[in-house]
Inverse folding.
């Protein structure tokens, strides 16, 4: 069992895989949706969505979230998951928003679809993260958590 996972390994995995599922809760009902990580660094795991979606309202009401990144290789016959549990923090930073639109210009087209929509940036902070694979099956509680 891996016992010495580093922050660098976790960040590298998240930035490489990028596709994850994000869980929120609204009125004690879990909600899970596929998400595309923008980037992860020492300051958090950064995501974006539109204010027209339900996700921002869920985050405003309950900041507790979990993201699960999954890598599977048929060739290697292996799978590895990264789970990140923490607090969603709204990011209101014009420089970051400009950088996002520069790096993902396709987001600008959403204004045509939903003219009242605004960009909603958030990051996961106060997090614990860990890797999981079948080796850890039935021993999840023994996996050391890396704090962010």
């Amino acid at each position: 069992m891996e016992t010495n996972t580093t922050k660098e390994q976790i960040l590298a995995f998240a930035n490489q895989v990028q596709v994850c599922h994000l869980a929120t809760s609204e009125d004690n009902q879990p909600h899970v949706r596929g998400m595309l990580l923008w980037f992860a660094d020492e300051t958090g795991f950064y995501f974006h969505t539109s204010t027209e979606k339900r996700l921002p309202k869920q985050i405003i009401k309950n900041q507790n979230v979990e993201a699960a990144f999954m890598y599977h290789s048929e060739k290697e016959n292996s799978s590895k998951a990264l789970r990140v549990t923490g607090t969603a923090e709204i990011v209101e930073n014009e420089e970051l928003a400009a950088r996002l639109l520069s790096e993902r210009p396709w987001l600008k087209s959403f204004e045509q679809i939903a003219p009242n929509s605004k960009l909603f940036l958030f990051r996961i902070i106060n997090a614990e993260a860990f890797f999981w694979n079948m080796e850890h099956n039935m021993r999840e509680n023994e996996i050391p958590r890396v704090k962010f």
Observations:
- The chain has a mean pLDDT of 92.
- The longest helix spans residues 7-17.
- Strands lie at 19-26, 29-36, 39-41, 44-50, 64-73, 78-91, 119-132, 146-147.
- The chain has one domain: 7-136.
